[in-house]
Write a structure and sequence with these properties.
The structure holds two protein chains of two kinds. Chain A is mainly alpha-helical. Chain A has two domains: about 30 residues; about 70 residues. Helices cover about 80% and strands about 0% of the residues of chain A. Chain B is mainly α. Chain B has a domain of about 200 residues. In chain B, a hairpin with a 2-residue loop joins strand 1 and strand 2. The chains are: A mainly alpha, B mainly alpha. At the A-B interface, helix 2, helix 3, helix 4 and helix 5 of A face helix 1, helix 2, helix 3, helix 4 and helix 8 of B. Chain A: Its EC number is 7.1.1.1. Chain A: The transhydrogenation between NADH and NADP is coupled to respiration and ATP hydrolysis and functions as a proton pump across the membrane. Chain A: This is proton-translocating NAD(P)(+) transhydrogenase. Chain A: It is a multi-pass membrane protein.
């Protein structure tokens, strides 16, 4: 039991971030109109592409003779970039379409 | 030290742009700008990480060729794919990119675990001093901390399920994969999930409780040789999670796919947050949890807009709706 308390004490900053972000995430999109559901999903999809940062770190730390780590890391960087770049571009195109539709009406 | 401080500031700015971006994305007038704001923050965070990141010992990153190569390939392919795709095929594209993010999170876990398995766990060279003189080096082998293992496994399992599920959702939306279910699929899925969790728990306990053992003679005695067992079981867990992800989406009808994609989207968010725990990286943590929470709410809102309950949509599966919360 003591170790659990210790863990909470050491990691309290992270625990605060997690709790606050859960509420921020819920509050921030709370009143989204249903037409924006898909673009918002796509935008959120691009934001979780932040996992690319982990891929860059793991790639940058790999020893240059550890080929398994190099190849897997390279793959992780490529896939992460796809997620980020593709995600933002697709969202932008969706919202562009949204604007055009409105202008036509 | 200056670099680390600048990077911290960059991460802070990026986290704020994610929140503002999401906020703007949920209003029609500001949505497009919001996307750009978040993209700007992401670009800043990526560039900052590449050039300013230092690990605990103050070492810079290396393998720049590989990093830039990966960024270039991913960037070009991603832009082209996103520009070329037909307007009607947008949701399947989102699903595809979401799967890439999930796979990325799973790969990170794989590399980190492979690291521990190869190194014989955390070796720390401790020098014993006597009268100010180094008399002997000692290697103290410590087991990997249990919370590190927990985040590695959470990242692996959630990322893999998200990847496999997104690929199936992608295939369903473009008509390549048909709905498929068999008798007893609920039970099969339940068994799969239990197997994944049990294997993970077993491995975490085994690896985390390896006896710490000082090695005063530097004879390179391996502490308690677990051999290739951890790696084999680790990949087995990965395989089972993959099958679970496929079977989880398989029976769900094509019309419900957007809801499922949104759910998997929030899964990937949680998987990204696991990376944040692993590297003590606040921008990954913030971005991941933000998307995990917003994505879960969005999933529920989408269900409501379609006049359905999440349970109804996931009837091919079972109470998975609470998974993002427990994973974080």
């Amino acid at each position: 039991m003591e170790s659990v308390f210790n863990w909470i004490a050491i990691n309290q900053q992270m625990i605060y971030i997690v709790i606050l972000m859960v509420f921020v995430g819920i509050e921030v999109i709370g009143r989204v109109p249903s037409v924006l559901h898909t673009p918002l999903m796509s935008g959120a999809n691009a934001i979780h592409g932040v996992v690319i940062i982990g891929a860059i770190i793991v790639m940058g730390k790999a020893e240059s003779d550890n080929y398994v780590a190099l190849i897997l890391g390279f793959l992780a960087v490529v896939l992460g970039t796809l997620n980020v770049v593709g995600g933002f571009v697709v969202t932008d195109r969706m919202l562009e379409m949204f604007k055009n539709k409105k202008a036509q009406k | 030290m200056l670099e680390i401080n600048i990077l911290t500031l960059i991460y802070l700015i990026a986290s704020v742009t994610f929140i503002i971006g999401l906020k703007m994305l949920s209003h029609p007038a500001s949505a497009r700008k919001g996307n750009l704001v978040a993209a700007f923050g992401m670009g800043l965070a990526i560039v900052g990480t590449i050039f300013l990141y230092r690990d605990d010992e103050g070492n810079k990153l290396h393998n720049y060729g590989w990093i830039f190569g990966g960024l270039l390939i991913g960037g070009i392919v991603g832009t082209l794919a996103a520009k070329k795709v037909k307007m009607t095929a947008m949701p399947e594209m989102v699903s595809l990119f979401n799967g890439m993010g999930g796979a990325c999170a799973a790969l990170i876990s794989m590399i980190e675990f492979g690291h521990f398995a190869k190194m014989g766990y955390l070796d720390k060279i401790v020098q014993s001093y006597e009268a100010g003189e180094v008399i002997q080096d000692a290697v103290l082998t410590r087991p990997v901390p249990i919370e590190t293992l927990l985040t590695i496994f959470a990242g692996l399992v959630i990322g893999t399920v998200s990847f496999a599920g997104s690929m199936i959702a992608w295939g369903k939306l473009n008509g390549k994969i048909k709905d498929f279910s068999f008798k007893g699929q609920h039970i099969f899925n339940l068994v799969m999930l239990t197997a994944v969790l049990a294997l993970s728990a077993y491995l975490i306990v085994v690896v985390a409780t390896v006896e710490p053992r000082p090695d005063p003679n530097l004879d390179n005695v391996v502490p308690k040789d677990l051999g290739s067992m951890p790696l084999v079981l680790f990949y087995a867990t990965f395989g089972l999670a993959m099958i679970y992800g496929i079977m989880f989406v398989m029976p769900i009808g094509g019309a419900d796919m957007p809801v499922v994609i949104s759910l998997l989207n929030s899964f990937t968010g949680v998987a990204a947050a696991c990376g944040g725990f692993l590297y003590d990286n606040n921008v990954m943590l913030t971005g991941g949890i933000l998307v995990g929470a917003a994505g879960t709410l969005l999933t529920i809102l989408m269900c409501k807009a379609m006049n359905r309950s999440l349970k109804n949509v996931l009837i091919g599966s079972f109470g998975n709706s609470n998974k993002p919360a427990s994973g974080g």
